[in-house]
Amino acid sequence: MNRPIQELHVAVLMGGISPEREVSLSSGRMCADALEGQAARVTRVDAGRDLAQVLAELKPDVAFNALHGVWGEDGCVQGILETLQIPYTHSGVLASAVAMDKDKSKAVLRAAGIVVPGGGLFDRHEVAARHVIAPPYVIKPNAEGSSVGVYLVREGANRPVAEVGEPGWTYGEQVMVEPFIAGNELAVTVLGEKSGPRALTVTDITPTKGFYDYEAKYTPGGSRHVLPADLPARVFEAALRISERAHTALGCRGVTRSDFRYDDLNDDLVLLEVNTQPGMTPTSLAPEQAAFTGMAYVDLVRWMVEDASCPR
């Protein structure tokens, strides 16, 4: 956007219809507050199925997409915004859709020479009935974010995860099953600047209990962040450069976050996934990394609005 933020009407899209609704509301409220603090005209939109009609009536100058999970993060809302020709933050339709689909994004990243986990897609009922790969392994919905519906099957487990096959499972008929990679949980935020993607730093994440699931991500005190990560210099640098390559390979724009596992015993750095709409909550990694590099929360939010675009 070429206009001063004080002249903009920004629709902050939050809430939505995914299991990550509450996290999105938290992200959206903080982003809206930051924009209002910079004198932007802000309309807070709890995005529902009538979003196209709401936005057509509002006619905002830009949409700040603070939605997380299915529909808001997988290309659907991006398609609505492009149909209405409203500039919006974060990645476009194709990049959003591919990054959200773990199987397809792994294929793109692997083709770009990036190391990703093994495993693959399996029918959820088969996964619930038997060990489809040898434990330890991780079960994930193929198209959800924020560790929603993720299970860790530990080494020596006598049975698989029965919950995956239950009637109440709402995350698709196929699930991603990957070998569990021991070691450090790492994250890198990337800003898609006009001169090229720029990785900020590396955070080493240690959950205070269990593994880095939905609760650990969004509950205060659920995890401990070491910033910058205490890693060998070459591993630290590799995480930065791989994150930038992944951002480019998927065709992302705006802010992304790459999640890694680093197995120091075998010296393996594996990219788990790229999140095209990182959280902006009080416990979120992207604003924490931005602050570490000298970019305050309000500055990050303003940068995202200024970076907003819409293909013409």
UniProtKB/TrEMBL annotation:
Cofactors demanded by this protein: Mn(2+); Mg(2+)
A molecular-function term among this protein's GO annotations: metal ion binding
Residue ranges occupied by any ATP-grasp domain in the UniProt entry: 106-306
SUPFAM superfamilies reported in the protein's UniProt record: Glutathione synthetase ATP-binding domain-like, PreATP-grasp domain
UniProt record, GO biological process: cell wall organization; peptidoglycan biosynthetic process; regulation of cell shape
Predominant localisation class: cytoplasm
Protein's cellular compartments: Cytoplasm
Cofactor notes: Binds 2 magnesium or manganese ions per subunit.
Annotated Pfam families: Dala_Dala_lig_C (PF07478), Dala_Dala_lig_N (PF01820)
GO cellular component, one term: cytoplasm
The reaction(s) this protein catalyses: 2 D-alanine + ATP = D-alanyl-D-alanine + ADP + phosphate + H(+)
EC supergroup of this enzyme: ligase
EC numbers for this chain: 6.3.2.4
Catalytic machinery residues: 20, 146, 284
UniProt KW keywords: ATP-binding, Cell shape, Cell wall biogenesis/degradation, Cytoplasm, Ligase, Magnesium, Manganese, Metal-binding, Nucleotide-binding, Peptidoglycan synthesis
Binding site for Mg(2+) 1: 259, 273
Pathway this chain belongs to: Cell wall biogenesis; peptidoglycan biosynthesis
NCBIfam families (UniProt xref): D_ala_D_alaTIGR, PRK01372.1
Function: Cell wall formation.
Family: Belongs to the D-alanine--D-alanine ligase family.
Entries under HAMAP family matching the protein: Dala_Dala_lig (MF_00047)
Family annotation (PANTHER family): D-ALANINE--D-ALANINE LIGASE, D-ALANINE--D-ALANINE LIGASE B
Protein name, as recorded: D-alanine--D-alanine ligase
Gene: ddl
